[in-house]
């Protein structure tokens, strides 16, 4: 009799696996896809301050702090603040690690990326948010950086 129990147990496991494999529900659930939330903003550059913290002149560790006024459809809707720390200096090529906070009436959005100073465009990873943007993910594209035509194009996956 003891030999029958393992055989019965194996048969029960096999029947259970067969039942699960024939289930009308897939083993994995598909994620609902929806259109991203898009926010387009015009940027009014309010100023930049550079802090020299390392060797005299531009060097690793120096920081740039930016402040801007944000406009949607020609109307002021918020402000932002960002800081970029110099992480690499290779001749004229200056790489910075930037963190950006965008404050809008619906809440705040945060983003981060590396930026080569002087490049007129950068794509930043959206790292979170508050209010209507709580748990936000996606991408924030800055174009025409530090010019009168600077814009943010934000696509939020969530």
Structural features, described:
The chain is globular. The protein contains one helix and eight strands, in the order αββββββββ. With about 160 residues, the protein is mainly beta. Helices cover about 10% and strands about 55% of the residues.
What key phrases describe this protein's structure?
mainly beta; 1 helix
Q: What is the element layout, followed by pairings?
A:
Elements: H1 4-21, E1 37-51, E2 63-72, E3 75-90, E4 93-104, E5 107-116, E6 121-129, E7 138-143, E8 151-156
Antiparallel strand pairs: 1-2, 1-8, 2-3, 3-4, 4-5, 5-6, 6-7, 7-8
In brief:
The chain has 158 residues and is mainly beta. It has 1 helix and 8 strands.
In DSSP terms (H or I, runs of 4 or more residues), the helix count works out at 1
Strand content: over 45%
Give helix and strand order, one letter per element, not per position.
HEEEEEEEE
Main β sheet profile = 8 strands, antiparallel, barrel
- SS elements, strand count: 8
Span of the ends, CA to CA: 59 Å
Look at the helices and sheets and give the structural class: mainly beta
Average residue-wise pLDDT? 84
* Rg over C-alpha atoms, rounded to the nearest angstrom: 26 Å
Strand order of the largest sheet: 1-2-3-4-5-6-7-8
Low-confidence stretches: 4-31
What is the 3D shape?
A: globular
The quaternary state of the protein chains shown equals single chain
Tell me roughly what share of residues is in helical segments.
10-25%
């Amino acid at each position: 009799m003891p030999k029958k129990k393992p055989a019965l147990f194996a048969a029960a496991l096999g029947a259970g696996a067969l039942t699960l494999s024939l289930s009308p529900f897939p083993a994995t659930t598909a994620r609902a896809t929806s259109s991203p939330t898009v926010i387009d903003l015009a940027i009014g550059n309010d100023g930049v301050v550079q802090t020299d913290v390392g060797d005299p002149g531009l060097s690793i560790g120096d920081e740039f702090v930016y402040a801007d006024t944000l406009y949607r459809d020609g109307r002021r809707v918020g402000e932002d603040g960002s800081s970029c720390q110099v992480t690499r200096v290779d001749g004229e090529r200056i790489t910075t690690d930037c963190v950006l906070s965008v404050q809008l009436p619906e809440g705040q959005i945060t983003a981060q990326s590396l930026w080569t100073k002087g490049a007129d465009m950068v794509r930043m990873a959206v790292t979170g948010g508050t209010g209507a943007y709580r748990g936000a993910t996606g991408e924030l594209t800055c174009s025409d950086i530090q010019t009168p035509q600077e814009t943010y194009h934000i696509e939020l996956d969530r």
